[in-house]
UniProtKB/TrEMBL annotation:
Keyword Coiled coil: no
CDD domains: AAA (cd00009)
Alphabetic keyword roster: ATP-binding, Membrane, Nucleotide-binding, Transmembrane, Transmembrane helix
Organism: Pedobacter gandavensis
Name used for this protein in its record: ATP-binding protein
GO molecular function, one term: ATP binding
Coiled-coil regions listed in the entry: none
Domain TIP49 P-loop intervals: 188-249
Amino acid sequence: MRFITRKDLFQQLKNDLIGKDAYRGVTLTYSWMANQFGHFSLGFIPTFILYTFLSTKTELSRPEIWAPAIIWGCWILFELYNFLGPLLFNVNSKKQDLQNEDYIFHPEWGNITFDTLTDLCFFGLGAFSCSLLCTYSLPAMVIFLILSVLVIYPSYYWYATKMHLQNAGYPFQIRLSQWKFKIQDQDKAIITDFVKNPQSGKHLLLFGSKGSGKTSLSVAIATELSIKNNRCSYVTATKLLSMFFEKAERVGLSPGSWAWHDSSLLIIDDINPGGQIKKDILRAPLFYELLDNPEYGPFNKEYLRKMNTIWVMGNEEAPEQLEERWENLFKQIGIDESNVLRVNLDPVMVK
């Protein structure tokens, strides 16, 4: 089922264009449009300045072609340096490279390339639209029309992607390549496979004390999947407990939003603090009791069992009895042991 439809896109666009952001807040979709308008302006304004100079101070023929071509060419060179710089001009020592200090998880270069090409289209649109306003020419019109067609799909993709990100309810923005905490190689492999090969019904347990990066890692993982237009949701454990007593079909806060049980990936954060607080504050038996309430219990268990879930836990070795541990909760829900993945981010455990 597609939750973000064309109707939702137009409704979000209407919300972003009409009204003042001073009282409604700035959405990710609005920020993306403002960013692209900035790229358009950075093509338009320098082209106007250069065209004025070339047409009044020089004898150069066809300034309406040269001005946008030069400005767009400069932006292309800038974006090439901006994109290829980290790859071609890496000044780190070989030892640092071997230690993998730059990236723990490598960036999605294909996605970054697509974003760069989108920006270049808007730079070019600004440059050649300015040229057409100054002096009409057929070559400038042809290039402008080609760029206008090329930018249609990227605009649709990125606007819909920003809706997936903002409807997920993340507490902050972070890509997986920005995550800089310590992690063991086998745990890194688990995370990479979880992102690249998402399979329904996988439950990832992130253990670690305060400051180990477990919340930021969970958000980074989900962000990568949101960018692929998966329906992801972020909730704290206490908030989710209250949601176990409702069955909202759609959430009306923003166009195209979804309820927790419609998510392809659910982050359950702040289950327990960990670190020096050894005992679980939210016990597994209480969680299951509220999950399996008389009215919505079967419904809750069915959806929680079949969706991908990231459980942001505390200490891995809790002192509770076996029947009070979270492994027993998964068995009660009907989650197979083979679908439970474990990652420990505790600095004491990570070498």
